[in-house]
Fold:
Amino acid sequence: MIYKSDKIFVRALYCLWIATIIIFIFLLIDPVKTNTLKTAEFLLILFLIFIPAYLFRKSKKIILIIFLIFIIPIFLFSVSLKEYNMDSLKNAYVKSLCSYEETRYIWGGENNIGIDCSGLVRRAFIDALVREGIFNFNGVLLRNAVKIWWQDAAARDLFAGYDGRLIEVATAQSINSFDNSLLQPGDIAVTSTGRHTLAYLGHNQWIEADPTIGKVIKVTIPDNKNGWFKIPVKILRWKLLKK
Structure:
């Protein structure tokens, strides 16, 4: 026998689940992420899983699906393979960088809704790490993706090496004057002022989330109109892409 109070409780759980989905979607599309919002997203994911687990606890199929939702990520993250195809990761990174072309510039943004200069080089690398980590069952790449996603970084943090994740390749008076033969696709340039960062795509082409133009653009050098290419920079390389 199902009591009226039980029906009200179940209905309330359904309403809470729907509200959780709506809030999660809003947080997901918000381009500006703080650690507080990231924590909220994680907690909401738990709500999205546990509420249906309770509502459908008598269904073995649903419980099995929920179990797999937990166990598969745990398995992927726990795999300790250290070998990975660096060229494949580099190509995935460049492809991901290009996918953000024309995305509007939003200070602090880090997704397709809006992105800033440091968000572009970080988010594209996260995308590449997740893709390569999943397809190659490499937990090392996935764990690095989560760490980079969690630890936000402005251009000045990248200039300082981003806690050892970036390695200095060279310094230059400008991108226009630098010898591109010393670069590899995926290298990053950060202005000496620590205000702006760009990524090299190869074939004399760079990509940046330009605050002046207000969107992500590709630039072929030399370019004497764009001021970012005429000032001193530090060239850096992701440690995971260092040969």
The chain has seven helices and eight strands. The domain at 86-241 is CATH 3.90.1720.10 (endopeptidase fold (from Nostoc punctiforme)).
